[in-house]
Amino acid sequence: MRIIAFPKTGISYNDCFSAALQDEGVEVIEGVFSGGWLYQNLRRGDWLHMHWPSFAYNKPGSKVRQCLWFARFVTLLLMARAKGAQLAWTAHNLLPHDRCQIPAFDILGRHLVILLSRLILVHGPGPAEALQARFPGVRNKLVLIPHGHWIGYYKSDLSKDEARRFLAVPQDKPLFLFIGLCKPYKNLHELVATFLRSDLDATLVVAGKFSDVGYRNQIVELAGGDPRIHIREGFIPDDQMQHHLKACDYVVVPYREILTSGTAMLALSFGRPLISVDFGFLRDVISAESGILFPHDDPDGLARALAEAVSRSFDEEQIIRHARQFSFAQAASSFVRSLQAGKPVVV
Length: 347
Description:
Layout: E1 2-6, H1 12-23, E2 27-30, H2 35-41, E3 47-50, H3 63-82, E4 86-90, H4 103-116, E5 117-122, H5 125-134, E6 142-144, H6 160-167, E7 175-179, H7 188-197, E8 203-208, H8 213-223, E9 229-233, H9 241-245, E10 250-252, H10 262-269, E11 274-277, H11 280-285, E12 291-294, H12 301-311, H13 316-323, H14 328-341
């Protein structure tokens, strides 16, 4: 049995999941989503494992070119199935966060992937419920797996003082951190606006890459030079991840929409409490001792959560112990047992 992964590596989630699958004795190959590669390399019985299908068709260019890319996407999936390969999809989100310029393609693409998939991986009961409500066709194909932690994947040997000196932020004030890709669905603009309206004697660090210049300018203008807000724009390399996570007291990401949150698992892996919305996946993994969740429809929920955080004490070691129960090893085991059975198996 071979898994052809799209992708296998290059993203921390895929790095860890692929390694765990290989520990299970499964051969994992980095796939190339092209007709020539699939025709030459696919064998009957292979499993194509897709993570973000829209990456294969959502390309820049005219709408005509978009139609051609989508037609290519459909053709390659059908070709793979015709050659005897099976398809598995990990549902990281309901619909792509970066929507296609022909939005119907995103919906059609989801339905096609669901139709052709034999197994659909989803990170827990909350996301499973949301996915079934939006796409009933996933029923009887779902394999529930944990989203693994990153304890030991990123270095974590700095003290808080050393990390804060690196970021050039105050040593003696509570520090809220927004980390990762800076996109509207994460509601960064509302976080900045809420923090500005507060009278918190605290620091907010926004660290990550903006893919849209307009959104970047909106956030910078909104921050308005407030000395409490530090914007560290750009991609964060793995060896600097701890400089941000070890410096902060809380990780904040007040999503507008969410199915699965890698940011949540990142925070827990460093023993940092998460402040976010009370949605399914987060409700599944964030306990009362590891964060604060507020109702997504409460306009004052975020402000209250920020104020509550600075009045509470969180136990770093307890949060790390909580994070350890969500492992890539367990996820890989569930996936492999289901691959062997050709249907969802509860481990």
